TrEMBL record, chain A:
Domain spans labelled ABC transporter: 6-245, 256-501
Keywords: ATP-binding, Cell membrane, Membrane, Nucleotide-binding, Repeat, Sugar transport, Translocase, Transport
Cell location: Cell inner membrane; Cell membrane
Native organism: Lachnoanaerobaculum orale
Family, per entry: Belongs to the ABC transporter superfamily.
Main location as per UniProt: membrane
Any single GO BP term: monosaccharide transmembrane transport
Catalyzed reaction equations: D-galactose(out) + ATP + H2O = D-galactose(in) + ADP + phosphate + H(+)
Membrane topology: Peripheral membrane protein
InterPro entries: AAA+_ATPase, ABC_carbohydrate_import_ATPase, ABC_transporter-like_ATP-bd, ABC_transporter-like_CS, P-loop_NTPase
Keyword Translocase set for record: yes
This protein's record includes keyword Translocase: yes
Stated name of the protein: Ribose/galactose/methyl galactoside import ATP-binding protein
Automatic annotation (TrEMBL), chain B:
Main location: membrane
Protein name, per record: Beta-methylgalactoside transporter
Transmembrane segments: 12-31, 104-126, 133-152, 172-193, 224-243, 304-321
Keywords, sorted A to Z: Cell membrane, Membrane, Transmembrane, Transmembrane helix
C-alpha cells in the first residue's frame, strides 16, 4: 500500500503562448479531504482536466494507490476510481433520479442479444446508494423536483456507487444554503471515514478550516506548497495564494458622508406573493446597504423587481423623491439605477462581443450624434477611461470578454455601469467566483462610488463580506424583511438569527 | 514559429469553404475561356445584387439568433405586386385593365409598405409571442405564398412598362444600375450595423439576450425593427428582380431564403448569433453565385447543381459550428 491514494508528479501543460501548469505536485492521503486553493487562473481547473484526461499533460505522472495510471478520458477515470462533482452540475433533469445515477450503465436482463433494462434492480440499487448519502427521496421521482444540493448528493451517490476512491468537489457550496452545507459536510466526513479521498476546490476559507485536512496551494500555474490545514493560518494561506500580504481584506471606508434618501422602496410585493412581499427600505447617498439572508430568501428577486426584471403586484418605488413606473430595465436605467446581476455568464456578459462593446452597451444614448450615428471617438474615450480606472487586465479593448478571467469580466460589467453613471448601483453577489486580489479591488471601487455620493446596494451570501463592507444590513427571510442591523452591531450571529426567523 | 503555423492552419480551416470555392472558380476560369470575360462577370454581379440585398435582411435576423424563412416568398409577393401595377396599358392580360401609368417610385413604396406589414408581424410573433423564429417565419412563408396565390390567381404576370424594366437593366457608364443599388444599400446597412445604436443592440441580443435586456436594451422593439426592416429589403429586392426578369409569378423568389442563409454562413455570419458582418454577406453571396456560374460553365446538369449547393450549405454550417465549439 502506498502512502498516498493519489499522486500527481511533476505535471506541466502548455497552451500556445502560455505555460498553464509548471511542474505541479499533488499528493492526497487515503481517507482525507485535500483542499486545492489558488486564485482564479492559478491552474486548478487545468490540473483537474489533466487528471481526467480532458487535456493531455506535456509531462508528469499520475499514480493511484502507488500504481501508475494513464487516464484517457473522464469515463476511463471513473473506471479507475476517480469521480468529479462539477461546479455546474450537468444532469438530465427530465428523467428520474435512478436513471440519472445509472446513465450509460443501466443494469440489464439479457434475452440473447436483446438487452432490456432491469428497472427493478436499478431502483433498488439507487435507493441503497441514496441512503448512503442520507438522501431520503424516491428514486423514481424526476431529478428536476430536487433542489440543487439534493442533485449534488445524487451526483455523490453516483460516484460512490461506482466505487470511486477519489472524489473531486469543485466549488460544491457555491449555491447551497448554510443548512445544506452542513449536510454536505456530514456526507463528506462519512466518506472520509470509509477511506474515500476527496479533493475540495473552494475559495471559502471558513469551509477549508472546517472540513479539510491538507491544503495544496497553486499560484499562476506553479506549485506553491502543501500543508496540513492546522499548521497554516488564514493570513498565510492568502499570502501564499496571492504572493503578497493583504493586510486588510476590506479597504478602509473613512466614514463617507451620508446624504439624502435617493431610493425608497415602499411595500413592494411580488406578483407571486411567496417570492417576496411587503418589502420597504430606504437608501441614502453615500451609503453601502447590505442585504443578507439565506439563498432563496428573495433578495435577488426583490432587487430584480426594483430594476424592472420582475413584475410586482403592489408597492411603489421612488427615486429622488419621485415615484417611478419601472416596467423594464430600460426604464430603471433612465431613472438612474444600475444592476450587476448574480449570474455573470447568464445575464451579465455579452460573450462574443468585445470589451468595448460590453462597456458601452448600456450608455449608447450618450454618444449619439444628431440622434442617429454613434460617436466612435467618444465611445473609445469613455471605454479607455473606465478600463484603466478599474485596471482591467487585457491586451486590448477589442479583446472578447469571454477570454478574460472572472474577476476581469466582473470589472468590465462594473465599467459598463460606471460609463452610464447611475445614482444607485445594485450589486448582487459582486465578488462571487472572484479571487482574493480582485475582490479587494472591487471593494475599493464600491467605496469610491459611495464617496461620489452614489447609493450602493450589495446582496451577499458571504457573511464576512456583508459585515465588512456594509454601513447597514437588511436581512430577509423567506420573502420578507425580518430586520436591520447597523454596522456597529453586525455580527454573524444576529444576522443569522434574523435570516432564520421562520 | 509554432503559433504562426497554427494561425495559418486556423485561417485555412476558418475560411476553408471560401478557399475551396475560389479554387473551383479558378479551375473553371482556366478550363473555360469565357468564364473570366467581362460579360460573365457582369452577369454574376447582376445576379449578386438582388440576392445580397436579401442576405442583408436575413443576416440581421441570424445575428440575433433568429432566422427568416419568409424572405423568399416576400420577394415574390413584392415582385408580383409591383408587376401588376406596372404593366403596359395595351397589354392583353393586364391585371387591372383600367389602371393608368403609376409612378414607379410610388409602386416601390406600396410593395415595401405591404411587405413591411408582414415583416412587422414576424417581429411581433418572434419578440412578443416568443415563437421560435424558425417556426414563426415558416408559418409566414406559407401565409405569404397563399396571399400571393390569391392576389395573382396563380397567373403569370408580364408586359411590363419599359420604364420599369430599365430600373434594373439600365447602365450608368457601363455599370449596371442593379450593382449601384446594391452598393448604396450595402453602405446604408454597413452604417446601421456598425455606427448606430440599433446595430449595437442587435449584436448584443445575439451575444446574450438576457444580458442585453439587463443592460437596458429594448429587446422586443429591436427585434421588431429587425424583422420589419428585413422585409423592407426583401421588398426592394423583389421589386428589382421583377424588373430584371421582365415578368413574375408566384414562384418567384422561392427558396431564396435558404440561399441567403447559406451565403451568410459562408460569409461568416454565425447561426449561433452575435457574429456577422456586411462584408461577410457580400463575400458569401458572391462566392455562392460564382459557384453556380462555374457549375453552369463546367456543364454540370442543373439536377446535380442542387445536390452540390445542398452539400455546400451543410458543410458551411458545420464549419461554423465547429468554430463555436472550439471557442468554448
Amino acid at each position: 500500500m502506498s502512502e498516498y491514494r493519489l499522486e500527481m508528479r511533476g505535471v506541466s501543460k502548455s497552451f500556445p503562448g502560455v505555460k498553464a501548469l509548471d511542474n505541479i505536485h499533488l499528493n492526497v492521503r487515503p481517507g482525507s479531504v485535500h483542499a486545492l486553493m489558488g486564485e482564479n487562473g492559478a491552474g486548478k481547473s487545468t490540473l483537474m482536466k489533466c487528471l481526467f484526461g480532458i487535456y493531455t499533460m506535456d509531462t508528469g505522472e499520475v499514480y493511484v494507490d502507488g500504481e501508475k495510471m494513464n487516464i484517457l478520458n473522464p469515463d476511463d477515470a471513473l473506471h479507475k476510481g476517480l469521480a468529479m462533482v462539477h461546479q455546474e452540475l450537468q444532469p438530465v433533469p427530465a428523467r428520474s433520479i435512478a436513471e440519472n445515477m445509472f446513465l450509460g450503465r443501466y443494469p440489464t436482463i439479457n434475452f440473447g442479444p436483446l438487452k432490456v433494462i432491469d428497472h427493478k434492480k436499478m431502483e433498488s440499487e439507487a435507493s441503497k446508494w441514496l441512503k448512503e448519502v442520507k438522501l431520503n427521496v424516491n428514486p423514481n421521482e424526476l431529478l428536476q423536483t430536487l433542489s440543487i444540493s439534493q442533485m449534488q448528493s445524487v451526483e455523490i451517490a453516483k460516484a460512490v456507487s461506482m466505487g470511486a476512491k477519489i472524489i473531486i468537489l469543485d466549488e460544491p457550496t457555491s449555491s447551497l444554503t448554510e443548512n445544506e452545507v452542513s449536510g454536505l459536510f456530514k456526507i463528506i466526513r462519512e466518506l472520509r471515514q470509509k477511506g474515500v479521498s476527496l479533493i475540495y476546490i473552494s475559495h471559502k476559507m471558513a469551509e477549508i478550516r472546517e472540513i479539510a485536512d491538507d491544503i495544496t496551494i497553486m499560484r499562476d500555474g506553479t506549485y506553491v506548497g502543501t500543508w496540513e490545514v492546522k499548521d497554516i493560518s488564514d493570513g498565510e494561506i492568502i499570502k501564499q495564494m496571492v504572493g503578497r500580504e493583504l493586510s486588510n481584506i476590506y479597504p478602509p471606508k473613512n466614514d463617507v458622508e451620508k446624504g439624502e434618501v435617493i431610493l425608497k422602496v415602499d411595500n413592494l410585493t411580488s406578483i407571486h406573493e411567496n417570492i417576496f412581499r411587503n418589502c420597504s427600505f430606504e437608501l441614502r447617498r453615500g451609503e453601502i446597504l447590505g442585504f443578507g439572508g439565506l439563498v432563496g430568501a428573495g433578495r435577488s428577486e426583490l432587487m430584480e423587481a426594483v430594476f424592472g426584471l420582475r413584475s410586482i403586484k403592489s408597492g411603489k418605488v421612488y427615486m429622488k423623491g419621485k415615484e417611478q413606473t419601472i416596467a423594464r430595465p430600460k426604464d430603471a436605467i433612465k431613472d438612474g439605477l444600475g444592476m450587476i446581476t448574480e449570474d455573470r455568464r447568464g445575464t451579465g456578459i455579452l460573450g462574443c462581443l468585445s470589451i468595448a462593446d460590453n462597456v458601452a452597451i448600456s450608455s449608447l444614448n450618450n454618444y449619439l450624434i444628431a440622434g442617429i450615428a454613434l460617436d466612435d471617438g467618444k465611445i473609445k474615450k469613455v471605454v479607455d477611461e473606465n478600463v484603466s480606472k478599474l485596471s482591467i487586465k487585457t491586451p486590448s479593448n477589442k479583446t472578447l470578454i469571454q477570454s478574460l478571467s472572472g474577476g476581469n469580466q466582473q470589472k468590465v460589467i462594473i465599467a459598463r455601469w460606471l460609463a452610464n453613471n447611475p445614482d444607485v448601483l445594485i450589486m448582487d453577489e459582486p465578488t462571487r467566483g472572484i479571487d482574493v486580489g480582485a475582490k479587494y479591488e472591487i471593494y475599493q471601487i464600491m467605496i469610491n462610488l459611495a464617496k461620489q455620493g452614489k447609493g450602493i446596494i450589495m446582496i451577499s451570501s458571504e457573511m464576512p463580506e456583508l459585515i465588512g463592507m456594509s454601513d447597514r444590513i437588511i436581512v430577509m427571510c423567506n420573502g420578507e424583511i425580518t430586520g436591520e442591523v447597523s454596522e456597529s452591531e453586525a455580527t454573524q450571529e444576529n444576522i443569522m438569527s434574523l435570516a432564520t426567523k421562520f | 514559429m509554432n503559433t504562426k503555423s497554427l494561425d495559418i492552419k486556423k485561417l485555412l480551416l476558418d475560411n476553408g469553404i471560401i478557399i475551396v470555392l475560389l479554387l473551383l472558380v479558378l479551375f473553371t476560369g482556366i478550363m473555360k475561356d469565357n468564364f473570366f470575360s467581362a460579360n460573365n462577370l457582369r452577369n454574376v454581379l447582376v445576379n449578386v445584387a438582388p440576392r445580397v440585398i436579401i442576405a442583408f435582411g436575413v443576416s440581421a435576423c441570424l445575428i440575433t439568433k433568429g432566422t427568416d424563412l419568409s424572405a423568399g416568398r416576400l420577394v415574390g409577393l413584392s415582385a408580383c405586386i409591383a408587376g401588376t401595377l406596372l404593366q403596359n396599358k395595351d397589354y392583353a392580360n393586364k391585371m387591372f385593365p383600367n389602371l393608368g401609368d403609376m409612378n414607379i417610385f410610388l409602386v416601390l413604396l406600396i410593395s415595401v409598405a405591404i411587405c413591411a406589414v408582414f415583416g412587422f408581424i414576424n417581429g411581433v410573433v418572434v419578440a412578443h409571442l416568443n415563437v421560435p423564429a424558425f417556426i414563426g417565419t415558416l408559418g409566414m412563408q406559407l401565409i405569404v405564398y397563399g396571399v400571393c396565390l390569391v392576389y395573382t390567381k396563380a397567373e403569370p404576370i408580364g408586359g411590363y412598362r419599359t420604364a420599369y424594366t430599365t430600373v434594373a437593366t439600365g447602365n450608368f457608364l457601363k455599370i449596371p444600375y442593379l450593382f449601384i443599388y446594391a452598393l448604396i444599400i450595402g453602405f446604408i446597412m454597413w452604417f446601421v450595423f456598425n455606427k448606430t445604436r440599433h446595430g449595437k443592440y442587435m449584436y448584443a441580443i445575439g451575444g446574450n439576450e438576457a444580458a442585453a435586456e439587463v443592460s437596458g436594451v429594448n429587446v422586443k422593439k429591436t427585434k421588431i425593427i429587425i424583422y420589419t426592416s428585413a422585409a423592407v429589403l426583401y421588398a426592394v429586392a423583389g421589386f428589382l428582380l421583377g424588373a430584371k426578369s421582365g415578368g413574375s409569378s408566384v414562384n418567384m423568389g422561392a427558396s431564396y431564403e435558404l440561399e441567403a442563409i447559406a451565403a451568410c454562413t459562408i460569409g461568416g455570419v454565425s447561426v449561433n448569433g452575435g457574429i456577422g458582418r456586411i462584408s461577410g454577406c457580400v463575400i458569401g453571396v458572391l462566392v455562392f453565385e460564382l459557384l453556380k456560374s462555374s457549375m453552369q460553365f463546367l456543364g454540370i446538369k442543373p439536377d446535380f447543381q442542387f445536390i452540390v449547393q445542398g452539400i455546400i450549405i451543410v458543410v458551411a454550417i458545420a464549419l461554423d459550428i465547429r468554430k463555436y465549439i472550439q471557442k468554448k
